[in-house]
Recover the amino acids of this structure.
């Protein structure tokens, strides 16, 4: 596999990590809206809702980024993906649309009081289903169950992608979202509300840990090729990193070291996804199609790579400006305080 | 349902739905930029208030544009995987660049809409510049991909497979420039007239506020300046199509047979059994003159193409005429408005004039749809002209059920959106609560 193909595959990976870490947090917001409990349930929902408002559309663009890199750089892979995963992707798209619509409806304030629970239910259900189906689709690439014979994708429309391995994969997708959101929220809240999100984060971390551990014995039975690839030293490096970081986020949360915990939570997500991609590498579809086999001609890959620095030079500072402006107190209607700008400031 | 037809219907419905939001996604930022700059220059706060009054509508439309655009980017592959496997390396580059533009637009729009309390006024005004630039850039890049489907470039074909791919040449295909200018202007015209219609409606209801008057003037200033440019860019697009997409031109103008000094046909119906044009009005030699700038130029007719490879003139020609008609309706209403203002007549209480503006207001959006029908139906049966047929690019999967699901999604979105835009705001954004727990 050439350097160029590797770099473009890396772009797909970066896009997926960014999507999981940022848009994942927005989906997690929907999940925790549904699971908000205790005396401050209303405040939890409001906080999540305010935090999502200014950033969700930008975060969502990472999905477009991944799709575009896939069809520009790995058109043959995109072709296979779209045929094999028609059903889960359609479900995810329906979720994306209802989630967006419910959110703007909620945000517009133009609803009757009685409608609020309905809007929140649509928002939550679609926020849960979307990462679940995306998780299923992603794990399907690693299940080794896609068959390509003479360039034609085999297998039924409904059956092939629903296996124990992909169902747990979908749950992991959801758990990633559930895990990451409360970490960000602990950085932006105070007092009892912060304590609520700390508990949510602990729950999310435990659930993600259990699900990812479960996937390993399931892979042994249901996706043996994936298991074989997972236990390569190269892959275990990332798996180990994910485990160490995950456990450390628990410890840091326990000790209320919020900033460090949030940073490590991001690393946990990144290494979990990288671990999955590393298990597949150099395959795009495990055992069936490599990145090299799916790749576009070098001229296209070169064009993508030489424009990347220009795009990144515009994008990175803009993203930084966005998150800096809307960091701190989740409600954008309130100005940033000194505390929001100074990370050492003690909120309690 | 035949799955090719289902896939075509779904792609058509999805794009038809999406481009309405695109129009506002490009038109609003332009108005925003103009308005905020005027506010700074004239120190008249009404301009700023006017711009801020659009933010809620703009966010809603942008959000629906973003999620429906996501459906589209996936549909490229879900419906046309074989086409994307073939064309991805050539049309990937403009989509890749568009991705960055889309990022920038989303980021700065959020900063403008939500950042009033967190940014300085100067910073807030400055954010409108990247919004306006990136929204136009998005359109220009995406249109390059459509241009490539019309006039493919940047590759050689060997046994139906592309090789020797030159992505920059593919992006700079022959149709790009003319389509990008025409298409991007069209979005601004469409949204300006739609917005003018809203203000005309308010003024008709006797809500004679400074904001409503200014809103109408501003929308019709942008619309009025850009409408004549549609004619110029349309001429460029049509003369280019005449040269590089002769089948499309033949269908647009319902030319059955290759003719020297071809007439321009207005209306009418091509009887494909007898190859006779019925009920059309003919202007002698005008088509040759318009398309080739020579009254005696030869225009290829539909019979110059094999029977299976001809677009249907009875779809393309009527939509082409409807597009032109929409243009004249908008030209007339903007013209009447500005003539009245030039003669210093009162316009904001002039009911017939306001009604005329209201009537003309949907025609920009309609013209945009008609024009897009012309370019898409005019390319049939090719998905990439001369290289791949639509039927070759389609997915092997059944698509009927996806069509039903997405139609339900679009209906739900439309119903929700209309309710949202037509109900007056009762509750402020979010629910007011004491905020101490955030601190």
């Amino acid at each position: 596999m050439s350097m160029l193909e590797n770099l473009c595959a890396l772009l797909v990976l970066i896009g997926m990590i960014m999507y999981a870490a940022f848009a994942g947090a927005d989906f997690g917001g929907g999940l925790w809206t549904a699971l908000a409990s205790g005396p401050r349930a209303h405040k939890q929902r409001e906080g999540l809702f305010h935090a999502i408002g200014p950033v969700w559309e930008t975060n969502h663009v990472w999905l477009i980024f991944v799709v575009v890199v896939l069809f520009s750089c790995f058109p043959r892979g995109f072709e296979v993906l779209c045929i094999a995963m028609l059903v889960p992707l359609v479900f995810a798209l329906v979720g994306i649309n209802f989630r967006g619509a419910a959110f703007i409806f909620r945000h517009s304030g133009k609803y009757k009081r009685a409608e609020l629970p309905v809007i929140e239910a649509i928002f939550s259900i679609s926020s849960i289903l979307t990462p679940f189906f995306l998780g299923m689709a992603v794990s399907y690439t690693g299940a080794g169950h896609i068959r390509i014979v003479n360039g034609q994708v085999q297998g039924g429309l409904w059956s092939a992608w629903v296996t124990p391995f992909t169902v747990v994969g979908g749950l992991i997708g959801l758990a990633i979202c559930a895990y990451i959101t409360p970490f960000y929220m602990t950085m932006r809240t105070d007092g009892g509300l912060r304590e609520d999100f700390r508990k949510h984060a602990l729950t999310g971390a435990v659930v993600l840990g259990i699900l990812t551990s479960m996937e390993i014995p399931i892979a042994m039975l249901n996706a043996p090729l994936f298991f074989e690839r997972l236990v390569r030293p190269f892959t275990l490096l990332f798996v180990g990193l994910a485990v160490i970081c995950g456990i450390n986020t628990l410890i840091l949360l326990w000790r209320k070291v919020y900033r460090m915990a949030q940073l490590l939570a991001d690393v946990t997500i990144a290494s979990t996804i990288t671990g999955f991609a590393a298990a597949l590498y150099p395959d795009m579809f495990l055992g069936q199609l490599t990145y090299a086999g799916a790749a576009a001609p070098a001229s296209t890959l070169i064009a993508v790579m030489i424009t990347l620095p220009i795009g990144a030079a515009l994008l990175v500072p803009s993203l930084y400006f966005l998150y800096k402006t809307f960091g701190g107190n989740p409600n954008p209607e309130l100005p940033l305080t000194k505390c929001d700008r100074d990370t050492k400031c003690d909120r309690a | 349902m035949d799955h090719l037809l289902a896939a075509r219907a779904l792609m058509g419905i999805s794009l038809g739905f999406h481009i309405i939001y695109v129009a506002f996604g490009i038109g609003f930022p332009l108005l925003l930029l103009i308005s905020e700059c005027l506010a700074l220059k004239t120190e008249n706060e009404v301009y700023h208030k006017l711009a801020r009054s659009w933010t809620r509508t703009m966010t809603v439309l942008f959000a629906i544009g973003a999620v429906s655009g996501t459906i589209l980017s996936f549909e490229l592959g879900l419906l046309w995987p074989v086409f994307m496997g073939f064309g991805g390396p050539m049309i990937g580059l403009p989509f890749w660049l568009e991705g960055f533009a889309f990022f920038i637009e989303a980021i700065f729009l959020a900063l403008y809409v939500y950042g009033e309390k967190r940014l300085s006024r100067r910073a807030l005004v400055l954010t409108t510049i990247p919004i306006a630039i990136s929204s136009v850039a998005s359109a220009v890049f995406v249109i390059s991909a459509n241009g490539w489907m019309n006039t493919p470039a940047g590759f050689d074909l060997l046994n139906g497979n592309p090789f020797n791919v030159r992505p920059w040449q593919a992006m700079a295909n022959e149709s790009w420039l003319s389509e990008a200018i025409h298409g991007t202007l069209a979005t601004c015209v469409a949204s300006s007239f739609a917005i003018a219609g809203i203000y005309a409606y308010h003024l008709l209801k006797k809500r004679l506020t400074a904001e409503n008057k200014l809103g109408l003037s501003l929308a019709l200033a942008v619309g009025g300046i850009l409408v004549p440019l549609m004619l110029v860019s349309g001429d460029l697009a049509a003369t280019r199509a005449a040269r590089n997409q002769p089948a499309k031109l033949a269908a647009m103008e319902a030319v059955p047979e290759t003719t020297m000094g071809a007439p321009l046909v207005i209306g009418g119906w091509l009887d494909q059994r007898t190859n006779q044009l019925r009920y059309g009005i003919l202007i002698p030699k005008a088509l040759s003159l318009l398309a080739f700038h020579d009254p005696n130029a030869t225009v290829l007719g539909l019979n110059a193409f094999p029977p299976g490879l001809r677009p249907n003139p009875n779809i393309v020609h009527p939509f082409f005429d409807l597009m032109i008609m929409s243009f004249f309706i908008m030209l007339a209403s903007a013209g009447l408005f500005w003539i009245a203002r030039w003669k210093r007549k009162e316009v904001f209480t002039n009911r017939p004039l306001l009604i005329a503006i209201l009537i003309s207001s949907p025609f920009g959006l309609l013209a945009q749809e008609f024009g897009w029908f012309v370019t898409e139906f005019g390319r049939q049966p090719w998905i990439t002209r001369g290289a791949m047929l639509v039927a070759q690019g389609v997915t092997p999967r059944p698509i009927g059920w996806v069509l039903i699901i997405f139609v339900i999604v679009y209906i739900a979105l439309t119903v929700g959106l209309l309710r949202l835009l037509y109900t007056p705001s009762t509750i402020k954004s979010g629910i007011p609560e004491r905020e101490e727990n955030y601190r």
Observations:
- Chain B touches chain A through 85 residues (CB under 8 Å).
- The CA atoms of residues 158 and 205 of chain B lie 64 Å apart.
